[in-house]
Design goal:
heterodimer; A: about 375 residues; five-stranded antiparallel β-sheet; elongated; B: about 350 residues; MetI-like fold; 17 helices; flat; disordered N terminus
Chain lengths: ~375, ~350
């Protein structure tokens, strides 16, 4: 049963931000909206929460049209990117505020808050003020404030983006294991693709006012519907090259426009769809993890030179030059490369992505 | 102080600072300070010569000494002498101990003026702050278009731009019993009969008239202070409250007022400090009358000192007022400090 439905939601300020955006989040689903900053992710949440008046479309929560309903009667609870804790109130009073607004009796109120704060492991901080606790604890306080409200829909705006890596990981685990979040519908906004892939039951990639693609994390990552989605998911960013698809004997080759001597074979799995769309020009997408860096065999067709090599511990990132074209590759952790060394590359042809040069749609889907 | 010892003074001072910084950066471990740092320290000297701080501090100090400290000491001295016009110019004033204070504190005139001051603090200063706070919040919340908000603020602030003595003169005209605009207005509105007159400058009402004129002029000050405080409160908090479902009343009493507490306290302090030097309007509107019914302590001090040249007595007045004000302001600052610590504004 859908808990949250957005039906052709429109919102604009000086420019259109959300353009006929539709979305359905089911009960128990954790839906992550991912997109570059400034694309309208927060605006989308604010529209659902009722903090913004829609320019068009409808918002339904629990099957009820709440488009014209004030925020507190919508059954949605929201955490803010800045936490928005009340600075002069204790952690306890902060968490209590939605309950006080409903006039909950004191005993029940204390029991509720103690239960939730124990769950989030901030029960020892109840008498502190927001300025006396750390960022992670502030975030948990804000989260507790939404949890006690027992909403139908949780709206989480970049809840862990501003925390340091260790606490981010811990809170990410907490989002996985919180039953409260897993029971209702959650709309979670982030610019961090790893967070999205880790947390989302489904992911929506926001761009150009709409959800460019909705799907399971793995599907979106492996089969992006267009270049925008492919470029936004994945770190380092996908390599893209203009290329011409040409038939040669019984094979199809992708000849890179910037380096005509380089021709990459097209995998059989992709060939049928590419031939059906008539070959010609395309944008080739090469994920850094599809590039394997080997020794320096001078007879190998794909020779590159190393510009920068970053050894990051768990993996390495190699920024190199393939002819005149820049290329990024992920290497195993034990590899070591010096600036200017020649290397040979192997590119897994069945992991390549082909996009239309005009609108960027995935030609193979 | 010779030049070398000045330099040594500056050096030592710098060394203190760097030691403190070093302690912060290097912690309390036994790790030795690096060589370059030791050298830098022993080299000493800064960007400016040793005389620069002496002059920069010395000049203002001399001015303050001349126009603040010396007169204050002079005042304290004469508060304990029987100085009046005669003895001041002949130079043979005699010490009288606390006689001036005793005389002032037991006089009916002083006691009446204190109760007048209490009236003014309650219905003047306090009312102005409350009114200003209410107006500020109403303007911020209810006047929607930005330009209209600005316009209303400008209009409300205009009276504050007027010299207090002019404002007092203006209100003296407005409040005239026979030809004053206020009485005419009340008659025309049908609030009182055509043959009735309110004697605004009678024994009963003269202090009220002063308070009306002062409130008209000064309500804008707390208004501006509270308004700017309200503007600077983070909007996300109010959005969170909207999602939480807090009512307008809850938002006001649980969020806005508690968060504006120290701002409102500052407005109070400013108005209270002004109250102690409230002379201008008293002087032009009522001259403390009729029958000293609108006298405030500082007005009497002014009368005694400047008009009657009862220097000793005037000095005693001034010191008593000073002590009063100091106690009250200290209490306020204590409160302010507590509030700020409570809210984490200071450590």
């Amino acid at each position: 049963m859908p808990r949250l439905e957005l039906d052709a939601v429109c919102k604009g300020y000086a420019h259109p931000v959300l353009d006929r955006l539709s979305l359905t989040v089911d009960e128990g689903e954790f839906f992550v909206i991912v997109g570059p900053s400034g694309i309208g992710k927060t605006t989308l949440l604010r529209c659902v929460a009722g903090l913004e008046r829609l320019d068009g479309g409808r918002v339904l929560i629990g099957g009820r049209d709440v488009t014209r309903v004030p925020p507190y009667r919508r059954g949605a609870a929201m955490t803010f990117e800045s936490y928005a804790l009340y600075p002069h109130l204790t952690v306890f009073e902060n968490i209590a505020s939605p309950l006080r607004a409903r006039g909950m009796p004191a005993a029940e109120l204390r029991a509720t808050i103690e239960a939730k704060t124990t769950l989030l492991r901030i029960e020892h901080l109840l008498e502190r003020k927001p300025h006396e606790i750390s960022g992670g604890q502030k975030q948990r306080t804000a989260l507790a404030r939404t949890l006690v409200a027992r909403p139908l829909v949780f709206l989480l705006d970049e809840p862990i983006s501003h925390l340091d890596a260790k606490i981010r990981h811990e809170l990410r685990r907490q989002f996985h294991t919180l039953d409260e979040l897993r029971r209702v519908a959650t709309l979670y906004v982030t610019h961090d693709y790893a967070e999205a892939l880790s947390l989302g039951d489904r992911i929506g990639v926001l761009g150009h006012g709409r959800l460019e693609q909705i799907g399971r994390p793995r599907d979106i990552f492996e089969r992006p519907c267009n270049l925008f989605v492919a470029q936004h998911l994945g770190q380092p960013t996908i390599n893209t090259y203009a290329c011409a698809l040409e038939r040669q004997d019984d094979r199809v080759l992708a000849r890179l426009s910037g380096a005509p001597e380089i021709r990459l074979p097209v995998a059989d799995a992709h060939r049928v769809r590419l031939e059906a769309s008539g070959l010609g020009q395309a944008t080739l997408g090469v994920r850094p993890q599809s590039v394997r860096v080997d020794g320096a065999d001078p007879r190998h067709p794909l020779r590159a030179t190393v510009d920068v090599y970053e050894a990051l511990g768990a993996q390495g990132i190699l920024l190199g030059r393939l002819g005149s074209l820049p290329i990024t590759a992920i290497t195993p952790p034990e590899a070591r490369f010096e600036h200017g060394t020649p290397v040979t590359l192997d590119i897994a042809s069945d992991e390549l992505l082909y996009f239309a040069p005009d609108d960027g749609r995935n030609l193979v889907l | 102080m010779s030049t070398t010892s000045q330099a040594a003074f500056v050096d030592r001072h710098e060394a203190d600072v760097s030691e403190r910084d070093a302690a912060r950066v290097w912690g309390t471990s036994a790790r030795p300070l690096p060589d370059w740092f030791q050298q830098k320290r022993s080299r000493g000297g800064g960007l400016v010569g040793a005389w620069v701080p002496i002059v920069l501090v010395g000049l203002p100090l001399a001015v303050i000494l001349a126009i603040v400290i010396y007169p204050t000491v002079w005042m304290f001295y004469h508060a304990f002498h029987d100085t009046n016009m005669m003895s001041l110019f002949s130079g043979n004033w005699q010490p009288v101990g606390f006689a001036n204070f005793g005389y002032v504190l037991t006089s009916d005139r002083f006691q009446d003026s204190v109760s007048n001051l209490a009236f003014y603090l309650t219905f003047g200063a306090t009312l102005q702050v409350l009114l200003g706070t209410a107006l500020a919040l109403i303007i911020y919340e209810l006047v929607r278009p930005r330009w209209l908000q600005t316009l209303v603020l400008i209009l409300l602030v205009l009276p504050m731009m007027m010299p207090p003595s002019i404002a007092g003169t203006l209100w003296k005209f407005l409040l005239q019993a026979n030809n004053g605009a206020i009485n005419h207005l009340l008659i025309n509105l049908g609030l009182m009969g055509a043959d009735q007159r309110i004697e605004w400058f009678s024994v009963d009402l003269s202090l009220v008239s002063l308070v009306i004129a002062d409130t008209w002029q000064w309500t804008a000050l707390p208004l501006l202070i509270v308004y700017s405080g309200r503007v600077s409160l983070p909007p996300a908090i109010y959005e969170a409250a909207r999602v939480d479902g807090a009512s307008t009343w809850q938002v006001l009493t649980r969020l806005t007022l508690p968060m504006l507490r120290e701002i409102i306290a500052i407005a109070f302090i400013l108005r209270f400090m002004d109250a102690y030097k409230f002379v201008d309007k008293v002087y032009v509107m009522t001259s403390g009358g009729p029958a000293q019914s609108s006298e405030l302590p500082v007005y009497i001090a002014f009368q005694k000192g400047i008009r009657e040249f009862q220097i000793g007595e005037a000095a005693a007045y001034a010191i008593i007022i000073f002590v009063f004000a100091a106690v009250l302001i200290t209490l306020f600052l204590q409160y302010l400090k507590r509030v700020m610590r409570h809210q984490g504004v200071t450590s």
